[in-house]
Amino acid sequence: MNKPSPDLYIGTMSGTSMNGIDVCAISISGRTPKLIAFASYNYPPKLSAELFELIKAPSMHLDSFGKLNFQIGRAFASAIERFISKHGISPNKIKGIGLSGQTVWHSPKGPAPFSIQLGSPHPITKIIHAPVVFDFRNSHIAAGGEGAPLVPPFHAKMYPFKKPSMVLNIGGISNYTLVSGASFFGSDIGPGNALMDAYCRELLKKPCDHNGALASKGTIKSGLVRKILQRKEFKRKHPFSTGKEIFNFQFIPNQLLRLSPEDALASLTEVTAQSIAMTANKHKKYKNIYVCGGGAFNKHLMSRLDALCEQSVFTTEALGIHPQAIESMAFAWMAYMRVSNKKIPIAQNGSKALLGSVLRIK
Fold this sequence. Notes:
Layout: E1 7-14, E2 21-28, E3 34-41, H1 45-56, H2 62-86, E4 94-107, E5 114-118, H3 122-128, E6 132-134, H4 136-142, H5 152-158, E7 165-170, E8 173-180, E9 183-191, H6 194-204, H7 222-229, H8 254-257, H9 261-280, E10 288-292, H10 299-308, E11 312-315, H11 326-339, E12 344-345, E13 352-353, E14 357-359
Parallel strand pairs: 1-4, 4-6, 7-10, 10-11
Antiparallel strand pairs: 1-2, 2-3, 4-5, 6-14, 7-8, 8-9, 12-13
Helix pairs in contact: 2-3, 6-9, 7-9, 9-10
């Protein structure tokens, strides 16, 4: 007798680096979700340019905002359609799709907390004909969280480590999860690639410092790095969340902008590395650090983390999973949890809640 095929869930996301759309498929048949396939797709150039302009100058006519929201949803739908076609996945096998959306503003504090993600789920349900779970961050805020980071419960589910370990995600923003047995704790840290990428886009007209090649040739301006790290944004009590509304080109001091590109990028990379190390070194019982996200591919940043952190530093390749796939897997798992009406822990208050809204096929 043939075993029934496991349930498949799709996860799709674009992080704070805004460098493309990640899509994955996972199966849920045991305790640990299994990655079936993963791919990454570029945003259409015009759409990417509009997003970066919106982050740079966060105001937009409502008509333009509505159109951009739909266009991003369609870009996600197109990426998923290409993905399932490439991997031979039938839409009727998909039990749910987790849509992170594209974060353009994050304001989880104050009398009216909220988070804005662009990417309408409607084009996805129309094209893929599967339930879409979306708006995870605002439901997380409504349950007493901050809407970010959302991935710590998934890290704890995915990695039943034999000894206490840290999972470090370096996207535009850096965040971490401490996993010890069944318990976990997670928080944002500060800039991941955000400041380095902003410098490259504004002054070098390129998306990033590939592999940290320019930074590796520069000299770290230690005094300037210390001055930046003394700012209040690096002294917040954990857990908390942050975003590009803070860590953007305007955050970079003029003194640093007058440096050579090599020295500027070496110093900005050091800001990221030292801010992460300051957090990691407060948790010495977590002996291993496993890095995922785009920052895992920045060789210079990884070498600085290895030098500054007192723990052993690896990428999640050491665990058998592509570093870029982890976050889309988390949204696929969150879709499974919501479709199954299973609650997810909220790190900030210890409660559990259903996360996300479900758009079902009609």
